[in-house]
């Protein structure tokens, strides 16, 4: 099994896979930016900042004992393994496709015209980039079971998506395994190219959440006497957002500096991210149900809401763990598709329930003729509808992007996919903060028993006019009392 820690790709007894007339191990694939500083000579004892490279460290190839025993002890090379580093756009230069052959390794027939050597992988050089695709050969000597690859560094001088393969052509080497590691570094650190722009992005998002948190806190303190329970939920979402973005920035900064991801920090970041996503969706749902605005509690649906939230948290956590603790290659794996589907299905459940609840809440507010709250919920519904339409459009673009880029050649733009969802969630949170901002007039959005009495009064008016008038009088009296009490408090201040 191969363990990959960020840009340090580790190989633990990897077995070579047959393909056409060759055997190979996929050593990694990452987007790489060109070096900002170029060496004129050796890479030893020189600073690595500004350089982009792939370094081969402690790579050892082991062939079966019976294979080694059959060799001539005096022969210098009794087997050959090649490390081939190629830019994805030049993948057609590997193998015999340009010779109208499926062969990857050179055969005696193909060697007749001098275009390749028997026993080696066929490589056609890139005229625009001399020396590429890069080939590094490691021979087995005599009857040795092991062949050690020399410690060396390949500098990257052209921006692109690079693939690394370890290959051999000799069928007698079947059963050979490899161990060791390769270190991939970009000019500004060890972050893979696809992830590099996300570090400053998370830093920027941390700042935006901090600014939102400060503004909300000032408003919260200013009107602390008029705070309702919903305000505490909004505060929690802002706090979770601040922690999530700060943790991701710290995780990426550490990853960039060391080349590996500390499991502890990554787990915290993943958990905060999953919890914040879940809590944000639950906030949207309870707001849509009119919690604290047209109803004091969620009543019988509380358990259903919590159950949906728990299932979503588990599914979201599993997806985030696979994405951030699994294979770090910039070439996306297919395994995550099976975890994306449950999350997408649960998101659909949330959307349907939210809009169904909004419809009932708007209907109830129209019945009560509470124009202030009705206008508030109409604005919220419009904002939510726009966000859903934008989300659907973006998902369509994401599907098109992934389908049209199977080899991750558009890796430099891939970070925008992840960044979009963070920005959309932030914008929705800002909209909720504006609509439900604490104020000296909490009755414009807070729940009032008077409205329930009024609604009951309207339903009874046909049966008992006297009772209806009494309820109406009671309502007017309560409104006058509330206004007088509020006015008295304001004059004291």
Give a quick set of tags describing it.
single chain; 493 residues; alpha+beta; 6-stranded antiparallel β-sheet; 11 helices; disordered N terminus; disordered C terminus
Structure write-up:
InterPro entries: GOST_TM (IPR053937), GPR107/GPR108-like (IPR009637). Residues 197-442 form the GOST seven transmembrane domain. Its main location: membrane. By secondary structure, this protein is an alpha+beta fold. The protein is 49% helix and 15% strand. The chain is built from 11 helices and 11 strands. Strands 1, 2, 5, 8, 9 and 11 form a 6-stranded antiparallel β-sheet that branches. A 5-stranded antiparallel β-sheet has the order 3-4-10-6-7, with no helix packed on it. Helix 3 runs parallel beside helix 9, helix 6 runs antiparallel to helix 7 (337-368) and helix 8 runs antiparallel to helix 9. The chain is elongated. Residues 1-6, 40-45, 327-332 and 449-493 have low confidence and may be disordered.
What is the approximate shape?
A: elongated
The percentage of residues in β strands lies in 5-15%
First-last Cα distance: 70 Å
User: What is the CA-atom radius of gyration, in angstroms?
Assistant: 32 Å
Provide a concise account of the structure shown:
The protein contains 11 helices and 11 strands. It has helices at residues 65-69, 108-111, 198-222, 229-258, 263-288, 302-325, 337-368, 371-404, 415-435, 449-460, 465-492; strands at 4-5, 8-15, 17-19, 22-32, 53-62, 80-87, 134-139, 146-148, 152-155, 160-168, 177-185.
